[in-house]
Amino acid sequence: MKKLFFISMLICNLSYAGEPKITPILKGQEAPYEGVLLNKDAAISLKVEIDTSSEKCNILINKEKDIQVANCDYQKSILINQCEREKSDLNTRITTVSKELDLYKQKVKEEQSRSSSEFWNGTFIGAAGGVLVTSIVGLGIYIFR
């Protein structure tokens, strides 16, 4: 907090000042103009802070970017898994419906085959019965005549 106040005071003073000036003074010497006095440690600390601020900013940006990329990758994996699960469900349904269709086709063939064989069996039995009855009647007429 102390640094923030110090930097804001420095920036405010710089904004009202004309051209920035750095003038070294010795202990006991009067300052040649109004401003903020820094000792060497404070000046070095300020210089380090200024020099590293861009790198700190890049680190924070990269960290946030990495967090967002990880979040997007996570969401992507969730959606991919959901699509794969739905695809699997649909393939299972297709297989089931295909098997049911094959069973219906087989039943239709059996019905057609049975209907056809029943027709021919009925026709054969009817024709054979007709021949038999005619033969018996003919024999009866021959015998009893």
Helix content: over 70%
Low-pLDDT windows of residues: none
Please report the distance between the alpha carbons of the first and last residues: 141 Å
Share of residues in strands: under 5%
Roughly what is the average pLDDT, rounded to an integer?
Answer: 81
Instruction: Tell the overall outline.
Output: rod-shaped
Helix and strand run: HH
Q: State the assembly state of the protein chains.
A: single chain
The largest β sheet comes out as: none
Class from helix and strand fractions: mainly alpha
How many DSSP helices? 2
**What is the strand tally?**
0
What would your notes on this structure say?
The structure is a single chain. The protein is mainly alpha-helical and about 140 residues long. The chain is about 80% helix and about 0% strand. The protein is rod-shaped, with a radius of gyration of 52 Å. The mean pLDDT is about 80.
Descriptive terms for the model:
145 residues, mainly alpha, 2 helices
Summarize the structure.
With 145 residues, the chain is mainly alpha-helical. Helix content is 82%, strand content 0%.
List the helices and strands and how they pair.
Layout (H helix, E strand, L loop, with lengths): L1 H15 L23 H104 L2
